[in-house]
Design a protein that fits this description.
heterodimer, A: 88 residues, alpha+beta, Histidine-containing Protein, Chain: A, four-stranded antiparallel sheet, B: 624 residues, alpha/beta, Glucose Oxidase, domain 1, Enzyme I, Chain A, domain 2, nine-stranded mixed sheet, eight-stranded parallel barrel, 24 helices, globular
């Protein structure tokens, strides 16, 4: 199991487009992928789940990965957040 | 809401509110008559089935637990239908709208496939015994509430994306529910229907259909005509005024509905219905005769075809060919406009073979941005926007399979290719380049095809009519789309009740543009057809003949009336009528001239299909 902390940096927060990028990227890996925020945990491969996190700019999230490729998955997803989903 | 108007309208002048619907007329017997617009001829007498479609609200429906599996299946089917519709939208809009917008649709697709959503809905169906619609409503509402509680305006807006997905699913579920409920031998009354729904209802054996909205050229009206179902549209708030079970008369010839008909009224309409059937029989006898004027000019009368079933009407109605196949309608009825070449080939081949040896003119997809784009990207002026050939040239991947299919079809009968909404010569030249590419692709696959495919354009924009000589150099034929040409020329949306009375295809300005087109075509030696609604109206036939039109193309049901009139008049007289009409000032002047002309040269105005005379502004469904 791999656990990473990330912060939402883009102004619009985790709206539909970033949520869709997270789900697509996460679904490329075999590892299970969950996101926790304020005690609420959702499946990171569910777009509706990610959207309903209602994560705004500045929100801190915990990403959890478990599976054969959990390290690669964690690196890929953290990179997405660090990049701010290509948004301002 | 108030629309200031520079001129007092007729309604204001008569003291009515500008926005109130026309008042009902009550005849001597006490029947309430509601005027609408005739959409498909025939008379239906029977009980109402009121089709209500509340927007958004879903009733808390419980199901028998034993049917949970069936309800889950319905949910799955709605998901796959919504997915197919979205794929079609994505493939059309991806390049045009850019990453940003198509990303929203791709996200919606992910939502449809979302396992969490699926499980939550199925759980709701199984544990709470909810109907599929109610389960979706409950689950999605819960998700949306989380987003709407957010402080971020960005995130609050995102609940719209969820709502759009929810509505897509519920639309598909309801379509199935609606159908299951409609009883046979009733007259459907609704605010609006789609063409696909009309087709489904006709299979249930309904008697007719009356709609609050829609115009006579809407797809739902065309579908009704193809199916031979009496229909009246633009009935304002009729659906608010009747209840399921009320006895009514629906008159699709005159465009009206009678509420609470007396016994006398019922007898009158039964008699009219018999007369209508007699006239239909006489029309069939006219079918094999040519549309030739008394001084020996023959006009080709072609049929507009929206759906393959309409080809059954060609022989009975005496069509000389097919003047317009609207392929976007055919393809949409298959579920999506993005059909592979092979599917399109089979679809068109069926029509071409049904018409052969008569010619078939097939129009490539006439897509309107207004019908395809998401709410967020709706154009402010779709009529001046991304439509017709503009879409296809931006999206050659959409056009090429269609061109290949049409080249292949041309082996099975004479085919002409028609391009919609052309505004520059360059667009025609561009299509020729794509045709070359389509031929090369077919040749390299060793697929047989007919290389020679005449290419023509719709003349539906004033600039094209004004420069018709320039376009004639690159076209093999012209087809005048009189509905759009009139709307663009007079700046009147005929579907807008507030201005629709200003719409007239007989306006001298419109006639002048048509004349310019036919003159240029004659000089270039290419034929001109008219394929708008006016082509099917015998009241307009002398004008169109006099303008030098070679071919008229209308819904098959209008052909006999036009033919009968052509066989009674002289082409030379029609030409002298037009010389006078072109000098007049407005549409009313032309209407008056025409009325006098009919009295002098025919003896009376064209007759309706119920055997009564059509008024000057009478409905267009006529037999002459």
């Amino acid at each position: 199991m791999v656990e990473r902390q990330v912060t939402v940096t883009n102004r619009a927060g985790l709206h539909t487009r970033p949520a869709s990028m997270i789900v697509r990227r996460g679904s490329q890996f075999a590892a299970d992928f969950y996101i926790k925020k304020d005690g609420y945990e959702i499946n990171g491969k569910s777009i509706i789940g990610v959207m309903t996190l209602a994560a705004e700019q500045g929100a801190t999230l915990t990403l959890l990965f478990e599976g054969p490729d959990e390290e690669e998955a964690a690196d890929a997803l953290v990179a997405l957040f660090d990049d701010g989903f290509g948004e301002e | 809401m108030h629309h200031p108007s520079p001129h007092p309208s007729r309604a204001e002048a008569s003291g009515e509110s500008l926005l109130s619907p026309p008042e009902d007329t009550t005849d001597a017997s006490g029947d309430v008559i509601i005027d609408g617009v005739a959409a498909s001829p025939g008379i239906a007498i029977g009980p109402v089935y009121l089709l209500k479609r509340e927007s958004g609200r879903v009733e808390a429906e419980r199901i028998d637990p034993a049917t949970a599996a069936h309800e889950t299946e319905r949910f799955e089917k709605a998901v796959s239908q919504a997915e197919r519709a979205l794929s079609s939208i994505i493939s059309v809009t991806r390049e045009k709208l850019g990453e940003e917008s198509s990303a929203i649709f791709e996200a919606q697709q992910l939502m449809l496939r979302d396992d969490a959503l699926y499980k939550a809905v199925v759980h709701h169906i199984e544990e709470q015994h909810s109907s599929a619609s109610y389960a979706i409503d409950q689950v999605m509402t819960r998700y949306r509430q989380r987003l709407e509680g957010s402080d971020s305006p960005y995130l609050r807006q995102r609940s719209d994306d969820l709502l759009e997905v929810q509505q897509r699913l519920i639309t598909y579920l309801r379509r199935g529910e609606l159908l299951a409920d409609v009883p046979p031998d009733t007259i459907i009354i609704s605010q609006a229907l789609t063409a696909a729904e009309m087709m489904l209802f006709s299979r249930r054996g309904i008697l007719g259909c009356g709609l609050d909205y829609s115009g006579p050229t809407s797809h739902v009206a065309i579908m009704a005509r193809a199916l031979g179902l009496p229909a009246v549209v633009s009935l304002h708030d009729l659906s608010e005024r009747v209840e399921t079970g009320d006895m009514i008369v629906l008159d699709g010839i005159r465009g009206r509905v009678v509420l609470r008909p007396s016994d006398d009224t019922l007898r009158i309409f039964q008699k009219r219905n018999r007369r209508f059937q007699e006239i239909r029989t006489q029309q069939r006898e006219l079918a094999p005769l040519p549309a030739e004027t008394t001084d020996g000019v023959t006009i080709d009368l072609h049929a507009n075809i929206e759906i393959a079933q309409e080809t059954d009407l060609l022989d009975d109605h005496g069509a000389d060919g097919i003047g317009l196949v609207r392929t976007e309608v055919l393809l949409l009825l298959q579920g999506s406009i993005t059909q592979p070449e092979e599917v399109q080939y089979k679809l068109y081949r069926q029509i071409v073979e049904a018409a052969a040896p008569r010619p078939t003119t097939i129009r490539v997809m006439d897509l309107g941005g207004d019908k395809m784009l998401p709410l967020a990207r709706r154009e402010n002026n779709p009529f001046l926007g991304w439509r017709g050939i503009r879409v296809l040239l931006d999206k050659p991947d959409l056009l090429l399979p269609q061109l290949r299919a049409l080249l292949r079809c041309a082996q099975h009968g004479p085919v002409r290719l028609l391009l919609p909404m052309v505004t520059t010569r360059r667009e025609v030249q561009h299509v020729h380049k794509l045709l070359d590419r389509a031929r090369e692709e077919l040749a390299s696959r060793h697929v047989p095809f007919e290389a020679n495919l005449p290419v023509g354009i719709m003349v539906e924009v004033p600039s094209v009519a004004l420069q018709a000589d320039v376009f004639a150099e690159v076209c093999d034929f012209f087809s005048i789309g009189s509905n759009d040409l009139t709307q663009y020329t007079l700046a009147v949306d005929r579907g807008n009740d507030l201005v629709a009375d200003r719409y007239s295809e007989l306006h001298p300005a419109v006639l002048t543009l048509i004349k310019r087109t036919t003159d240029a075509a004659r000089a270039a030696g290419i034929p001109v057809s008219v394929c708008g609604e006016v082509a099917g109206n015998p009241m307009a036939t002398p004008i169109l003949l006099g303008l030098g039109v070679d071919q008229l193309s209308a819904s098959p049901i209008y052909i006999p009336g036009v033919k009968r009139l052509i066989r009674r008049i002289a082409h030379a007289e029609a030409r002298s009528l037009v010389r006078k009409a072109l000098d007049l000032h407005d549409a009313e002047d032309v209407q008056r001239l025409l009325t006098d002309w009919f009295h002098t040269h025919v003896g009376h105005l064209p007759l309706g299909l119920d055997g009564e005379t059509l008024g000057a502004h009478g409905p267009q469904v006529a037999s002459s």
